[in-house]
Design goal:
Blueprint: E1 39-48, H1 52-75, H2 89-95, E2 96-107, E3 110-119, H3 121-130, E4 143-151, H4 163-169, E5 180-182, H5 187-192, H6 200-210, E6 214-224, E7 230-241, E8 248-254, H7 261-284, E9 291-299, H8 303-314, E10 319-328, E11 331-339, H9 342-350, E12 354-360, E13 372-377, E14 387-389
Parallel strand pairs: 4-5, 4-6, 9-13
Antiparallel strand pairs: 1-3, 2-3, 6-7, 7-8, 9-11, 10-11, 12-13, 12-14
Helix pairs in contact: 4-7
Length: 398
């Protein structure tokens, strides 16, 4: 199956656009109050197809997929990234809350466009849940950032007009799960906090002054070349107070060819922010239990009794659905869709005085075993013509 990361191939399906070929739909009222992580701006998309209209439809789908991938990378915890699968056209389009087309060109059978997309939070979370991907429900509480910049082992700068301070005063990227605000840097702040000898006590004082429970002291050391160009960067981030992940994070970067100081510092700041966001996601993630469907033969029970048992089972949180399939001599057939493990499902059945068992018709042990399930009232004797299997040794696939 194609993963979400194997992105952007030509679609054989035709998706209905949210607007006409030359129009755009403005964001819904109040949408900008959402966490910026739900927005993806300046998505460039191109496609070539049989006609310009066909190319546009493919390009729009590709743009929606690109946006979904970016938002997923922000919200879904690292170990669940690979479980995401590409949604169908209708499901994908339903996740889009608003779409703004800022530029487009249709030349012959080719299309190129630039657009901004806002995703619907509730539909995104439903998608993550259906994909059984652990994710963060929303961003962490804002924390205080105290940036310190040192150029070529010179004096340490804090609360100064420099690109490092400017970056952190802007978040540095509000779309990450963990974002930051800056202290004002007034005379009182400068008297409290010495960037040459940053202390825990001084940091706590600034946290209390500005009403934060957690802070990050981020010290950047830049080495420049003979022409004053940025060459490399080392960042050490020390967490003070409440927060997630390690108390110390670091980043070491080498400047790309002709990279500006501002660009290098931005990469360093966002790398630290990414680490902090990942730690937050890992510690607050919504775990999604796997969902399975199994067929069950119900024995020793008539249909009216089983109908009552179905009602009791549906009241349990673990049960997604119970469906009666049919009746044969001495038995009923049913399907059960549930979340969690088979052993947990056994306990659910036990709560309504039924035993759920796994069995096979193969009497001899074998690596390849065909497994079946049956349920019966607890007071009835177990069948003798089958081999009962331990639930703990059975792995289901969904």
């Amino acid at each position: 199956m194609l993963g979400l990361k194997s992105l952007l191939v030509k679609s054989a399906f035709v998706a209905t656009a949210l607007f006409g070929s030359m129009g755009w739909q403005a964001p819904l009222a109040g949408a900008q109050a959402l966490w910026p992580g739900y927005f993806v701006n300046n998505i460039q998309t191109k496609a070539v197809a049989g006609t310009g209209a066909d190319a546009q439809e493919i390009a729009f789908r590709n743009a929606r997929l690109a946006g979904l991938r970016e938002v997923s990378e922000r919200m879904v915890c690292a170990e669940s990234q690979d479980v995401l699968r590409v949604p169908g056209d209708n499901e994908l389009q339903a996740m889009v809350q608003s779409l703004e087309l800022t530029d487009q060109k249709i030349i012959g059978n080719s299309y190129s466009g630039l657009m901004n997309i806002a995703f619907d939070p509730s539909r995104l979370k439903t998608y993550f849940t259906q994909q059984q991907a652990a994710f963060a429900e929303g961003p962490a509480m804002m924390q205080l950032a105290i940036p310190i910049l040192r150029m070529d082992q010179g004096s340490a700068l804090a609360f100064d007009d420099n690109p490092w301070t400017t970056l952190w005063s802007k978040g540095p990227n509000r779309t990450f799960l963990q974002s930051y605000d800056m202290a004002e840097g007034d005379e009182e702040d400068q008297a409290t906090f010495d960037p040459e000898l940053p202390s825990n006590t001084a940091t706590v004082s600034l946290m209390e002054k500005y009403g934060y429970t957690g802070a990050l002291v981020v010290s950047a050391e830049v080495t420049t070349g003979p022409e004053g160009e940025a060459m490399d960067l080392f960042v050490e981030a020390i967490r003070v107070g409440e927060g997630y992940g390690p108390t110390r994070m670091e980043v070491a970067l080498v400047a790309d060819a002709e990279e500006t100081l501002e660009s290098l510092l931005r990469r360093g700041a966002e790398d630290i922010q990414r680490q902090a966001s990942a730690a937050y996601c890992e510690n607050t993630k919504t775990e999604v239990a796997p969902v399975f469907t199994i067929n069950i033969v119900v024995i020793g029970t008539d249909l009216p009794t089983w109908t009552q048992i179905e009602g009791l089972l549906r009241e349990r949180e673990e049960i997604q659905s119970v469906a009666y399939v049919g009746q044969r001599q001495g038995a009923l057939d049913a399907t059960v869709t549930f979340s969690g493990s088979l052993t947990a499902l056994q306990q659910v059945f036990g709560a309504v005085n039924y035993r759920l068992m796994a069995y096979t018709n193969q009497q001899a042990a074998s690596d390849a075993v065909q497994v079946f399930f049956f349920a019966q009232p607890n007071f009835q004797p177990l069948p003798q013509n089958v081999r009962i299997l331990p639930m703990s040794g059975i792995q289901l696939s969904n």
